[in-house]
């Protein structure tokens, strides 16, 4: 059973930066998409950043220009570099990997808390 282990969350002041990591316990084959989601208290989980079709990336409006998604295949690790953090970025962040020809395999990390103080 593949596990995704997240790290890198924490408390940071507004304007600061954090880098989240999501390490897979083993190599995942036929990856179709990788992404980061976040869920703030009382809100639905939302997509923050997505990498699909190889290295093509897309970002939600609120984080575009501040966050960067990347991967290190040799380390089976997905990253989210977050710069210029704002209090509204406060949430639990989850990584997700979709695999299989029909996207039938969905893997989720356990979540890591990011808190941005004003």
Per-chain topology:
Layout: E1 4-7, E2 10-13, E3 18-24, E4 31-39, E5 46-52, E6 56-59, E7 67-72, E8 77-82, E9 91-99, E10 105-108, E11 112-117
Q: Would you give an account of this structure?
A:
By secondary structure, the chain is mostly beta strands. The chain is globular and about 45 Å long. It is built from no helices and eleven strands. The strands form two sheets. Strands 2, 4, 5, 6, 9, 10 and 11 form a seven-stranded mixed β-sheet that branches. The N and C termini lie far apart (40 Å). Helix content is 0%, strand content 56%.
Low-confidence stretches: none
Based on secondary structure, the structural category is: mainly beta
Contiguous helical run count: 0
Give the termini separation.
40 Å
């Amino acid at each position: 059973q593949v596990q995704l282990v997240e790290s890198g969350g924490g408390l940071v002041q507004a304007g600061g930066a954090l880098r989240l990591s999501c390490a897979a316990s083993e190599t995942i084959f036929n990856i179709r998409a990788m992404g980061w989601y976040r869920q703030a208290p009382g809100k639905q989980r939302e997509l923050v950043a997505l990498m699909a079709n190889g290295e093509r990336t897309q970002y939600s409006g609120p984080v575009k220009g501040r966050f960067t998604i990347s991967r290190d295949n040799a380390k089976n690790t997905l990253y989210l570099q977050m710069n210029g953090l704002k209090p509204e970025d406060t949430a639990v962040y989850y990584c997700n990997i979709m695999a299989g020809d029909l996207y039938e395999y969905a893997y989720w990390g356990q979540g890591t808390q990011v808190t941005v103080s004003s």
